[in-house]
């Protein structure tokens, strides 16, 4: 597990309380001046003003019931206190989420509501996104969630002088991008609405920085593997589902070819994490077949069938095989803690424990 000292150092760097660069996964806003590109003349400019170290922040996590929100809330509540970190979503949470700390309903498609929330909270962590395969099935919804909401966040961040961090993804690259390795700066041109919306967010953040002085940062994440959340429809979600199925039934059907190599990262590394404003970061890479073989070292009776889903496979074939994160490693010392052996042991311990508890009940 990551030490609280490391997390504290990274969180404070986003707040402007420490000289260190780098943080984790979600969009971050912290307060400063109070103007908006929706309100001001075209020749205006803005500069963020950070809080003093004695001014304790409150935190709101939007889209908090997604893959990263609950884990991030747990981490930040250790830093800022249980009642200073508020989870929000448009869905009803499970009982344990209510019990763990404050939760509110929030739809950030509602610009006025988002402004009211920001007035009452000094940092906003936004995790607004659908996953790749889900988005291809509903482009209109994907456009609303991943583009319209992002515009709201950009405008509110600029209006209230906040510092903004937006997560991006391997999906921001396309079939014309170099795949092995994929550098920070290269041709992108994705062919999914998921990827198009991520490139749009990267470029709009860069534009708002140069045009309005918005303090914008972005990290491109590989596939994220989490033990305490269910797969949500992403192309890399096979690497989560296989652990659940291996423990429960010993049988798994993979929707990618066995030789499909993609970069991956365990969620604890994701939650840790600027010269440039957009960086690649990665931890490990494997194919479904390699993952199967490693899990079988622990569960030798595991049986895996491959029934390729053409939609997910086409998406995976357009994504990087290897993420070049050498700039992040050299510029601000990024280093992952979980390789494939550590990932497998952690995931099997967690899913096995949960399955035994469910069976006992």
Automatic annotation (TrEMBL):
InterPro entries in UniProt: Epimerase_deHydtase, NAD(P)-bd_dom_sf, NAD(P)_epim/dehydratase
Q: Which residues form the NAD-dependent epimerase/dehydratase domain?
A: 59-230
Which pathway does UniProt place it in? Amino-acid degradation; L-threonine degradation via oxydo-reductase pathway; glycine from L-threonine: step 1/2
Return the Pfam families for the record. Epimerase
Q: Per the UniProt record, which EC number(s) apply here?
A: 1.1.1.103
Please give one Gene Ontology molecular function term for this protein: L-threonine 3-dehydrogenase activity
GO terms (BP aspect): L-threonine catabolic process
Catalytic reaction list: L-threonine + NAD(+) = (2S)-2-amino-3-oxobutanoate + NADH + H(+)
What is stated as this protein's family in its record? Belongs to the NAD(P)-dependent epimerase/dehydratase family.
Role summary:
Catalyzes the NAD(+)-dependent oxidation of L-threonine to 2-amino-3-ketobutyrate, mediating L-threonine catabolism.
The name of this protein is L-threonine 3-dehydrogenase, mitochondrial
Q: Which organism is it from?
A: Sinocyclocheilus anshuiensis
The organism's lineage is:
Eukaryota, Metazoa, Chordata, Craniata, Vertebrata
């Amino acid at each position: 597990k990551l030490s609280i000292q490391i997390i504290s150092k990274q969180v404070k760097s986003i707040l402007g309380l420490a000289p260190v660069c780098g943080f984790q996964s979600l969009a971050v806003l912290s307060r400063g001046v109070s103007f908006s590109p929706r309100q001001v003349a075209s020749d205006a400019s803005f500069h963020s003003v950070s809080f003093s170290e004695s001014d304790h922040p409150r935190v709101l996590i939007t889209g908090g019931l997604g893959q990263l929100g609950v884990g991030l809330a747990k981490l930040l509540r250790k830093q800022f206190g249980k009642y200073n970190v508020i989870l929000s979503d448009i869905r009803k949470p499970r009982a344990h989420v209510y019990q763990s700390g404050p939760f509110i309903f929030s739809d950030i498609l509602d610009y006025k509501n988002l402004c009211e929330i920001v007035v009452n909270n000094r940092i906003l962590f936004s995790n607004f996104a659908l996953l790749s395969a889900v988005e291809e099935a509903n482009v209109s919804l994907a456009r609303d969630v991943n583009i319209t909401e992002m515009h709201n966040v950009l405008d509110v961040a600029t209006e209230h002088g906040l510092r903004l961090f937006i997560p991006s993804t391997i999906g921001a690259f396309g079939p014309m991008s170099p795949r092995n390795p994929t550098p920070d700066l290269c041709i992108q041109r994705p062919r999914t609405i998921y990827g198009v919306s991520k490139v749009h967010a990267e470029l709009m953040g860069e534009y708002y920085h140069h045009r309005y002085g918005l303090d914008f940062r972005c990290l491109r994440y590989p596939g994220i593997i989490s033990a305490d959340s269910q797969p949500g429809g992403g192309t890399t979600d096979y690497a989560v589902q296989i652990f659940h199925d291996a423990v429960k039934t010993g049988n798994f059907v993979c929707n990618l070819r066995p030789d499909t190599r993609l970069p991956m990262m365990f969620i604890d590394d994701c939650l840790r994490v600027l010269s440039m404003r957009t960086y690649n970061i990665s931890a490990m890479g494997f194919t479904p077949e390699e993952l199967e073989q490693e899990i079988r070292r622990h569960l030798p009776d595991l049986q895996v069938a491959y029934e390729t889903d053409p939609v997910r496979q086409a998406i995976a074939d357009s994504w990087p095989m290897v993420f070049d994160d050498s700039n992040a490693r050299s510029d601000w010392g990024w280093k992952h803690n979980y390789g494939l052996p550590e990932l497998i042991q952690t995931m099997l311990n967690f899913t096995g424990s949960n399955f035994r508890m469910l069976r006992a009940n």
